[in-house]
Design goal:
Blueprint: H1 7-16, H2 24-36, H3 39-55, E1 57-58, E2 65-66, H4 72-75, E3 80-87, H5 90-99, E4 104-108, H6 126-135, E5 140-144, H7 149-161, E6 168-171, H8 187-195, E7 198-199
Parallel strand pairs: 3-4, 3-5, 5-6
Antiparallel strand pairs: 1-2, 6-7
């Protein structure tokens, strides 16, 4: 239903309401804010979104967001290339980085194994992880998958897949609640979980 009688405004509200964590009421407030703002702000916002879509891609090595073939973390020679932190999604990298306790590189799975949702191992970046273990002389893989039933199953699947490789597989220590997402956990808790990680 078009409450405002303005199709452009209703379209913006509808699109904003599809963003994670944005309900209809919040979408309305954001849309009205944009409407009341000067034209330059709206144009810069639109240009920034378009630029983001056109100029970013996935890192060819770890599947983090990047402006080139490799992301800034993979290109950083000061990072410990012998350690990989395995995460479920790109936002988890931001959470781990905010803890300042991990200085290795990353690998983004792109989800977790969930047959009920139609997500199978071949739908994730697991094969690429195996290739990295084979080719990059890795010493440790820290599994920082969001704690859930599917996440646990995914970690077990990958650890079994890599059991014959000479690489230490660890996971975050307790302190990260079951069913939580890393992006919503405070950096101190994540940092302690990294420092006290245990062998899987």
């Amino acid at each position: 239903m078009n409450f405002f009688g303005i199709n452009a405004l209703e379209s913006l509200i509808n699109n904003l309401s599809h963003l994670p964590g944005i309900g209809k009421k919040t979408a309305q407030r954001l849309a009205i804010f944009i409407l009341k703002s000067d034209a330059q702000f709206a144009e810069e916002l639109a240009d920034t979104i378009i630029k983001l879509k056109h100029e970013t891609q996935l890192c060819q090595r770890c599947f983090n967001i990047s402006e080139g073939p490799l992301c800034h973390i993979c290109k950083d020679e000061h990072r410990d290339a012998s350690k990989i932190c395995l995460v479920e999604d790109i936002v988890d990298i931001l959470a781990i980085e905010s803890s300042h306790e991990f200085n290795g590189r990353y690998h983004v799975l792109g989800g977790v194994i969930s047959p009920l949702s139609g997500v199978m191992p071949e739908d994730l970046h697991i094969r690429e992880l195996v290739d990295r273990v084979t080719n990059e002389n890795l010493k440790e893989i820290l599994m920082a998958i969001n704690p859930s039933t599917e996440g646990e199953a995914t970690m077990i699947y990958i650890s079994k897949l890599l059991k014959n490789n000479n690489v230490l597989i660890t996971q975050l220590a307790s302190g990260v609640p079951i069913g939580s997402n890393l992006e919503f956990i405070d950096p101190a808790t994540i940092g302690r979980a990294i420092l006290t990680r245990r062998k899987l």
